[in-house]
């Protein structure tokens, strides 16, 4: 009976039709009611739930308008996910329906139709894979070929032997750091907070180089590379996180020259490279001689733990011989799913770039109207606000008190600076971004 699925759905102070519609949505999202299931008739639902048929009709009408059910003549109502919910960039957790807006992380939901289709096709052709041992290695040959082909198409000739598949970009960085063992590593100030935490735990000394929304400070880069001689450098030249800055060709050439002069291994994080929000997206030339790491976490889904390292074939062979490399390898079936997704990635990127561009422009226009100071990023996932007379920690704390969680600039700093900054992702839907702006307005007034 449906009463077993919707126990405790009545909510004091909430109209029965609203409470029933909310309960059915929640039941779909947590799997108690499956997408594609047929609902009981209106009359039967009313009897089982001990409510009037009018209450059921009102609840189902609302769900039908929102896209949660579809009704066919003579075939009843079936459950589905609204298209805008199943295919949009924003995860449900930043939908803005609950009391808390948590924008401390900027990650996508899975494009449901693309991922479920890829999983189905991968399982259908997994027989040969399942007959093998499944032991970690360099990655499925097909996947390495697909990744190498994408690099080659962007102007960096690459062979499959130059690719090592990992369980995400963080795994790629951890493997490289463990293998290279640098005593010092150049990092951008600001840098992604998880990266800074990982490097600290590995005992690597970070050498910061300043980055703003306008770009990299050449003098700071030269000083940092000199200090980190015979070490490593971790840079994100394509839509840097959190500033969104894009490194120009001249600075990329300078980085390559500094690396050669001081014996520094440059590791380039390319996880944001495909999030180009310019009117005509086009990949920039890569830093010469750099080892690159990438993943599908920012473009497809963080739950698909597939990343990679692209470097000289000798380095890839040495990494494979490292005893810890197996710890960072993704499951073979997940790699097979990635093989199904990569040929479709360009089409998905067109959709996601358009969505993110609209959200970025909407948030930027609203914040600009309120007098906030920032540089509009050409890509990436967030605005990097410059605060006037207010500490980022203070503003973030005030915002949290009224239901908006954001990260202050100091969370992205390797040396505790950037206290006058705040990161505001534009990964949420437009309606939620309007709430974000209102919360920021209230927090700033307080």
TrEMBL record:
Keywords, ordered alphabetically: Aminotransferase, DNA-binding, Pyridoxal phosphate, Transcription, Transcription regulation, Transferase
All copies of domain HTH gntR-type, residue ranges: 14-82
Keyword Transferase listed: yes
Cleavable signal peptide: none
Membrane-traversing stretches: none
CDD domains: AAT_like (cd00609), WHTH_GntR (cd07377)
Gene3D superfamilies: Aspartate Aminotransferase, domain 1 (3.90.1150.10), Type I PLP-dependent aspartate aminotransferase-like (Major domain) (3.40.640.10), Winged helix-like DNA-binding domain superfamily/Winged helix DNA-binding domain (1.10.10.10)
Family: In the C-terminal section; belongs to the class-I pyridoxal-phosphate-dependent aminotransferase family.
Name used for this protein in its record: PLP-dependent aminotransferase family protein
Source organism: Streptosporangium longisporum
Lineage, broadest ranks: Bacteria, Bacillati, Actinomycetota, Actinomycetes, Streptosporangiales
């Amino acid at each position: 009976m449906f009463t077993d699925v919707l126990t405790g759905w009545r909510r004091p102070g909430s109209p029965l039709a609203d409470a029933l519609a909310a309960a059915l949505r929640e039941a779909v999202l947590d799997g108690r009611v499956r997408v594609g299931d047929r609902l009981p008739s209106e009359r039967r639902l009313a009897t089982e739930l001990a409510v009037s048929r009018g209450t059921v009709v009102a609840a189902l009408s609302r769900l039908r308008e929102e896209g949660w059910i579809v009704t066919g003549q003579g075939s009843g109502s079936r459950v589905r996910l609204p298209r805008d919910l199943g295919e949009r960039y924003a995860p449900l957790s930043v939908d803005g329906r609950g009391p808390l807006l948590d924008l401390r992380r900027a990650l996508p939901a899975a494009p449901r139709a693309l991922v479920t289709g890829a999983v189905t096709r991968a399982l259908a052709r997994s027989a040969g894979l399942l007959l093998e041992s499944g032991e970690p290695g360099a990655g499925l040959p097909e996947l390495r070929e697909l990744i190498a082909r994408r690099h080659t198409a962007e102007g960096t000739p690459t062979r499959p032997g130059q690719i090592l598949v990992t369980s995400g970009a963080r795994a790629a960085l951890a493997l490289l750091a463990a293998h290279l063992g640098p005593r010092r590593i150049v990092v951008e100030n600001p840098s992604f907070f998880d990266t800074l935490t990982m490097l600290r735990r590995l005992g690597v000394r970070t050498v910061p180089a300043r980055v703003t929304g306008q770009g990299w400070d050449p003098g700071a880069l030269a000083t940092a590379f000199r200090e980190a001689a015979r070490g490593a450098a971790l840079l994100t030249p394509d839509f840097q996180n959190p500033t969104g800055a894009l490194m120009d060709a001249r600075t990329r050439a300078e980085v390559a020259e500094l690396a050669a002069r001081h014996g520094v291994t440059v590791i380039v994080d390319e996880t944001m490279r495909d999030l180009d929000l310019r009117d005509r997206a086009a990949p920039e030339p890569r830093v010469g001689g750099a080892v690159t790491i990438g993943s599908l976490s920012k473009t497809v889904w963080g739950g698909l733990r597939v990343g990679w390292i692209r470097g000289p074939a000798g380095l890839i062979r040495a990494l494979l011989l490292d005893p810890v490399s197996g710890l960072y390898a993704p499951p073979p079936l997940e790699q097979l799913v990635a093989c199904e997704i990569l040929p479709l990635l360009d089409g998905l990127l067109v959709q996601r770039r358009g969505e993110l561009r609209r959200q970025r422009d909407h948030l930027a226009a609203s914040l600009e109207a309120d007098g906030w100071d920032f540089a509009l990023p050409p890509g990436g996932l967030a605005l990097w606000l410059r605060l006037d007379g207010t500490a980022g920690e203070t503003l973030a704390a005030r915002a949290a008190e009224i239901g908006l969680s954001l990260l202050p600039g100091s969370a992205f700093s390797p040396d505790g600076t950037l206290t006058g900054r705040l990161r505001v992702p534009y990964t949420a839907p437009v309606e939620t971004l309007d709430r974000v702006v209102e919360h920021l307005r209230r927090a700033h007034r307080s």
